[in-house]
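Tokenised fold entry reproduced for everyone:
>
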Amino acid sequence: MSDTPAAGAGFGPVEAALLREVGGAAPSIANSQPWRFAVGADRVDVWTDPKRSLPAVDPDGRQRLISCGAAILNLRLAVANLGFDPVLRLCPTPEDPEHVATVRRGAPVAPRPEDRRLYEMVHWRHTNRADYRPQPLPAPVLRRLVAAVEQESVALRLIDRSTERPAIAALVVRGVEDEAHSPEVRREFVRWLSDDPEPATGTSVGSWLASPYPMPVLSGQDRLAPGERAGMERLVERSTLAVLHTAGDEPVDWLRAGQALQRMLLTTTADGVAVSFLNQPIEVRELRAELRGLLDTGAPQLLVRLGYSRYPSRRTRRLPVRPPVEPPG
């Protein structure tokens, strides 16, 4: 007996609720969850939600679309796990920029073992900002991460040359100080903080305080002390770092970057690898250009910190599944 559903079967209420839940389990900038889903009989439409934007840190909505891309990858895995080939169309246009993707139910097919494995990681994946052990990631793990990103037509540049690390550390310090100097960024950062150790939206103050790098935006300072600068340099020196980058730098590229990010994060979760981000050099326009020139890559989208954490961390919860928007047409 086949374990795939009949070709005429559609998404019922149970499947629709599952798809919205799985899509909403994706990572997002500041845990803002900037997406909306509509589940039809044979498709899921994804919209970005500009009401949950961070205009100071993300003025062009680049990270908001990366977040939606991560949700799209989750939806693709969920459709596959339901027994259908997920057929994706990325569709943001200047005329309709909020409608970013449609994931259609294709032909009935048994999910690939890899897709099952990643799907099982969706609700386990979380960011871990705590300190990591000084243990390099094995080469086979790194190769799996590079291959995972490349499946989405995106690239992962591993930072493995000692000559690059001091320059990247300097860019991170400049990015931290640039954002801390901005009243708009400070207000926005605080807006998305929560005293709840497992917040349903935003990020936990405790997770930031447990991180090994300084956050002057929390202390009200706009400069790092000399000891804090040295600490940042040590962090960069002992971390496994990688830059996820794309050939282009348009909305469709940001959506692809988000899918590649989530495929990589689910792979790290399965391998027991912790992940956090040092995105300040990418969030500041001038520094992003410097980082791209330094590494001689495509458009940098995320600066990822990888390792084996010394301490466990909590995953953030999610908002209740919001009422679905109406499918188009």
The mean pLDDT is 89.
